[in-house]
Amino acid sequence: MKLSERAAIGFKKKEAKPPAGPQTRLVTRRSDGVIEARTGEGRLLAHYNPRTNETRDPRGDLVGLGNRLPRILQAAEAAAAARAKRS
Questions:
Q1: Does 12 fall in a domain?
Q2: CB–CB of 68/57 below 8 Å?
Q3: Between the N and C ends of the chain, which has fewer C-beta atoms within 10 Å?
Q4: 15 in a structural domain
């Protein structure tokens, strides 16, 4: 069955639904291997470079050696929950 036949019958393309509620964090891997942690709005929280084994903040300042992204993401999620609770 060709795509045009599927469209004529009424088949719809399945699209991924966004998760319910606000997305508080996002982890992506760039093509150079650097892993970035971002907020749901896209603001960079920190990035980890496995070649140098360093985690750095958005300004480029050293946070620590090793992958510290899980702890940074936990702190960001806790801060978002606290802000939501105050509102």
A1: no
A2: no
A3: C
A4: no
- State the residue for tokens 């300004």: 59
Domain of 71 in residue numbering reads as: 23-86
Q: What is 71-84 written as a DSSP string?
A: HHHHHHHHHHHHHH
pTM of the predicted model over 0.90 = no
Q: Which residues contact 54 (CB under 8 A, 6 or more apart)?
A: 48, 62, 63, 64, 65
- Bridge partner list, 48: 35, 55
Q: Is residue 9 part of a domain?
A: no
pLDDT given for residue 36 in this prediction: 95
> What is the largest distance, in Å, between two alpha-carbon atoms of the chain?
57
Reading the block at residue 3, the tokens are 């795509």
Residues of the chain with confidence (pLDDT) below 50: none
> Is residue 11 in a domain?
no
